[in-house]
Amino acid sequence: MEPPGDWGPPPWRSTPKTDVLRLVLYLTFLGAPCYAPALPSCKEDEYPVGSECCPKCSPGYRVKEACGELTGTVCEPCPPGTYIAHLNGLSKCLQCQMCDPAMGLRASRNCSRTENAVCGCSPGHFCIVQDGDHCAACRAYATSSPGQRVQKGGTESQDTLCQNCPPGTFSPNGTLEECQHQTKCSWLVTKAGAGTSSSHWVWWFLSGSLVIVIVCSTVGLIICVKRRKPRGDVVKVIVSVQRKRQEAEGEATVIEALQAPPDVTTVAVEETIPSFTGRSPNH
Q: What pTM was computed for the model?
């Protein structure tokens, strides 16, 4: 008896297939080690170019043209705004660090061909983002509020430290290092309330008003005196002129009297001689 024509080989019998062969080949090539061309071993002051070693450029210079069999490396200086700090085989120089004033930064060391710029904080700012040896961002110092004192001033790395004034003291604008003691003024006015650390007693207002009144009164008095003073001066001048005129007239009268010829009446004097002739002394 012959088996039916549609019967095939048993299912457990394996037949080679093309996909299996492809998988084996793929795994074989995948596991094979890959070999890359080895780079030449160059000295510390050289850099590899293909299979050759070329001399490096000095700090502040970049490679313009690599070396050849008969020529050395051609180097040229870094352009402004760029730098290279070490021996190198770079074809481009590095860009200098920019210190942005909008971030509160300033250059504490300017950039050169051999050194990068170092940024620090502008006056009144402290660093909030440190990046290596330079600062990347700064912030303005905090301002103490009225009623606070400056406990510790800000530095380039630390903000200003503020502290509230203790009871019985005050700070009007927050810029003082030590709070001021509140003044007792019971002789002038009763205290309206407990003094706060940022405001003083009410007597400041009253005493200030009193001072203003006194100053205004003094100024008004001075103005009145100055306005009246010219009239008094005029009277004094008139009196002085009259007095001088009278003195002058008196002196003129005296001079005229002295210079006028004397009013003398000449009287003839007759000399008489007593006659004793014919008379005796007894008569």
A: 0.46
Q: Determine, yes or no, domain membership for 163.
A: yes
* Residue 229 placed within a domain: no
Average pLDDT score over residue span 227-252: 64
Would 122 be classed as within a structural domain?
A: yes
- Name the pLDDT band for 137 (thresholds 50, 70, 90): very high
- Work out the end-to-end distance of the chain between its first and last CA atoms, rounded to an integer number of angstroms: 251
Q: What is the pLDDT of residues 76-112, one digit of tens each?
A: 999 999 999 999 999 999 999 999 999 999 999 999 9
Looking at residue 128, which CATH number applies to its domain? 2.10.50.10
Which residues lie closer than 8 Å to 22 by C-beta, 6 or more apart? Answer: none
Flag whether pLDDT at 13 surpasses 50: no
Please indicate, yes or no, if residue 132 is contained in any of the structural domains: yes
* Number of domains the chain is built from: 3
Domain span including residue 110: 97-136
